[in-house]
Design brief:
Rossmann fold, 9 helices, SAM-dependent_MTases_sf, Methyltransferase domain-containing protein, methyltransferase
């Protein structure tokens, strides 16, 4: 994607975009500087705050939760009806991982990771102006959330659609016990054979799955089969390619977080996982038989450098989430995949953390939402 600018959502007044910077001022870091699709425009405009002296950045992480609504976050205790074999955990390098299908997912499932996932949920909902989805749903009755994690999206959807039956599936039974009566959780692997009958679902949702899924075509094909004609699927992903519009971001060798992204990409790929598979989400949905495929993109700043107050808050969420993610994202890919020692990873992360706190670097990620509809005659 070029670092394009655009107005707001359909039906919303369009913002006046700033003139794009000259090509020599555009830079990217991470994943070899791959370009995003040229025909996509961002839903938001991010301009630097020229009057910010960095004080908001130096304020530290203690204020990340300003405006964060944690009312739907449960105690993360798993349902007591699950067997001990499913509820067992594996501990490695101070982090806790799932036991069921051990090694299938490279990220931990402990309390710090659950808190980070809930923070990421709040950030993404904020980016989308308070919405949980973009697909134009009409009275959905059966909804599934793939890779539900803490279950916070499914719980919020249960409140928004009280007449719908919502199921969240995940490898880890870490969801709250007390949830809306129309929400339930299932321990399962989304890449295994699906248990939902053909033409039984109205909406399939998956978010932040690019660091987990290996066989996207098979999973999307199963989603297509399970959806009723006219049903929708929506994929939400952060694209971990660092971008900058004003030349303030150095290359990955000089930018600790840029180097971190490159190394983690290599680590995940060593397990057969493509963390940038989401770049083909729209194409894969069409190939799986979905129509009316739409892709929306938002810029998500790292830090408090934007001028707009809402984007400052989003940038604060994002930076805090990324700092908390450093060990969680890198430990297994770098130690298991690239054969680093745990101590080497920890030493490396010192400079990475410092780079994320550098208020003079105006970098950002992009958040992509792709949705499509199963044809009414299928």
């Amino acid at each position: 994607m070029t670092d394009a600018t655009a107005g707001g959502e359909a039906g919303q007044p369009a913002q006046s975009p700033s003139p794009p910077p000259p090509p020599e001022h555009r830079s990217q870091s991470g994943s070899g500087g791959q370009q995003t699709p040229q025909d996509l425009q961002a839903e938001n405009v991010v301009e630097p705050d020229t009057e910010d002296d960095g004080a908001s950045s130096r304020a530290g992480d203690g204020v990340w939760d300003e405006g964060f609504d944690g009312s739907s976050i449960g105690n993360h205790s798993a349902s007591t009806s699950l067997s001990n074999s499913v509820r067992d955990y594996v501990f490695e390098n101070t982090r806790r991982y799932h036991k069921y299908k051990e090694g299938r997912y490279l990220m931990p499932n402990d309390e710090p990771e659950q808190e980070r996932e809930d923070m990421k949920h709040a950030m993404c909902v904020n980016v989308m102006d308070g919405r949980l989805h973009c697909a134009p749903l009409e009275n959905p009755q059966k909804i599934i959330d793939i890779g539900t994690g803490t279950g916070i999206w499914a719980i919020d959807m249960g409140d928004e659609y009280p007449e719908a039956d919502i199921s969240g599936i995940d490898l880890s039974p870490i969801q709250p016990t007390w949830v809306p009566p129309n929400v339930r959780f299932v321990v399962d692997d989304a890449e295994a054979d699906w248990v939902w009958p053909p033409a039984s679902l109205d909406f399939v949702h998956a978010r932040h799955m690019c660091m987990a899924v290996k066989n996207w075509p098979r999973m999307l094909s199963q989603a297509h089969d399970a959806l009723r004609p006219g049903g929708w699927i929506e994929l939400q992903e952060l694209r971990f390619v660092l971008q900058c519009d004003d030349g303030t971001m150095p290359g990955p060798e000089q930018y600790g977080y840029g180097k971190f992204v490159d190394l983690c990409m290599s680590g995940f790929r060593s397990f057969g996982i493509n963390p940038l598979a989401m770049e083909s989400n729209a194409e894969m949905l069409r190939a799986s038989g979905f129509d009316d495929v739409v892709e929306k993109v938002w810029k998500v700043p790292i830090g408090t450098w934007p001028r707009d107050q809402k984007l400052k808050t989003i940038g604060l969420y994002n930076r805090s989430m990324l700092i908390d993610a450093l060990q969680a994202v890198s430990m297994a890919p770098l130690t298991r995949g690239l054969k680093w020692s745990a101590s080497e990873v920890e030493v490396f992360l010192i400079d990475v953390r410092k780079s994320l706190m550098n208020a003079s670097i105006h970098s950002y990620l992009t958040f992509h939402v792709v949705y499509g509809q199963k044809p009414h005659k299928s």
